[in-house]
Amino acid sequence: MEARPRANLLAALIVPRPIAWVTTTNSTGRTNAAPFSFFNLMSGTPPVLCIGMGARDGRPKDSARNIEETGEFVVNLVTDACAPLMNATAIDFDAEVDELAEVGIDTVPSALVKPPRVAASPVGLECALTQIVPIGAGQRIIIGQVLAVHVEDEYVRDADRGHIDTASLAPIGRLNGGWYARTTSRFHMPQVSESEWRSRGTATAGDPHDD
User: Fold this and answer.
1) Residue 203 predicted with pLDDT over 60
2) Which residues contact 197 (CB under 8 A, 6 or more apart)?
3) What global pTM score does this model have?
């Protein structure tokens, strides 16, 4: 397949994808914000996430260049409330434009890294660059270790155990084209042990039920 229909196909099939709303700062201090949906958690111990960052005219995008320069970035998660702001930062502004200032996005200082967090986002993950994997045509896979996690108090159920009220947090996910998905409709399906499976002996073990 040609590159464009192939990308369309994969983006329509591998859904929903969480959105990394990434804030970075370049070596001169200019900030940048951009959303990326080729993103996910890869490991809890060590806490590692990956982001696929595309290219512009065969060159790495501003976010990737900033991360390569400074080794730091913040992943802000996206909810309904901040979705329009996130969408505005996806505009292909020139490299010298500070998307945060252009769109009118308030920020708060991070604790361990220079890039700020987005104030409107209820979750901010401060990250340090671990590795950049070039995958061709200026595209990069950014591998980062999570150094600090900020979550608004109203969504924290038990900080010591790391329990979050994800249902209330309700982050959105990326589909394809201009479509997104909400996480407000869920179902629960418990993990079944081998002994439980063999005692039941049917495909109904651990059947899902709506929340």
Assistant:
1) no
2) 205
3) 0.92
